[in-house]
Amino acid sequence: MKITILDRILLFITSLVSAYQIAVGIEGFSTLPMISYSIAFGVLLIATLLMLILGLEVLDSAIVVIVSTIIPLSLATGLVWQHLPNFKLPYSIFAIAGLFAIIVTRAITIKNRLPLFVLIFVHGVAGLTIFLVPLMLVLSGRMPLGYILLSIGGALMGLGGLLLALHKAGKPYLSRKTIIQILPGLLLLMTVLFVIGFALT
């Protein structure tokens, strides 16, 4: 499917917003959350630039499943490191093990449903972390109301990442055409929500 001018504009703006977050938006965080957030937005920046340059056909690459996992895992790990220090080590182990499991199940030909199960489990845990941690922090009064934008962005990220991953795994819930049509706008919206959410803290 040919990339439209609107898609290019949306992807270009997304890359600019991601670059801004890397350069300016993560200032003031401690070292470990800063590294984690930088990885997440760095991968998002590279992904949007690749789509902008090579077209949305790049989504057919096998690397898409892995990339669509790194972003939520890195963001979720950063949130845990920043706000739930008692869970830093176990969550870091989960993130590394989850990414490794996805890489292995994609590299080796497995004909059963194990790769799909691993994918859904890892994406599900990371997505729930991004959604629930900011929400709980806002409800408990530890963070301002604007921080809840991270939860909304996390929900959109989980939706987009899961649709892409399931599409690549051969289990699409939407057609390829529909996914490609909504993806640029979805990426921009979730990125803007993350950046504003972080800025309002």
Output the number of helix runs.
Answer: 7
* Secondary-structure element order, N to C: HHHHHHH
What's the alpha carbon Rg, rounded to whole Å? 16 Å
Number of strands: 0
Residue stretches low in confidence (pLDDT < 50, at least 5 long) are none
| Fraction of residues in β-strands | under 5%
Q: Structural class of the secondary elements?
A: mainly alpha
* Nearest-integer average pLDDT: 85
| Helix fraction bin | over 70%
Major sheet: none
Estimate the global geometry from the Cα principal axes.
globular
What number of structural domains do the residues give?
A: 1
Report the span from N to C terminus. 40 Å
Task: Briefly characterize the structure.
The chain is mainly α. It has helices at 5-25, 31-54, 63-83, 88-107, 114-139, 148-168, 176-199.
Mind explaining what this structure looks like?
This protein is mostly helical and 201 residues long. The chain has one domain. It is built from 7 helices and no strands. α3 runs antiparallel to α6. The longest helix has 26 residues. It starts with a helix and ends with a helix. The model has no long low-confidence stretch (mean pLDDT 85).
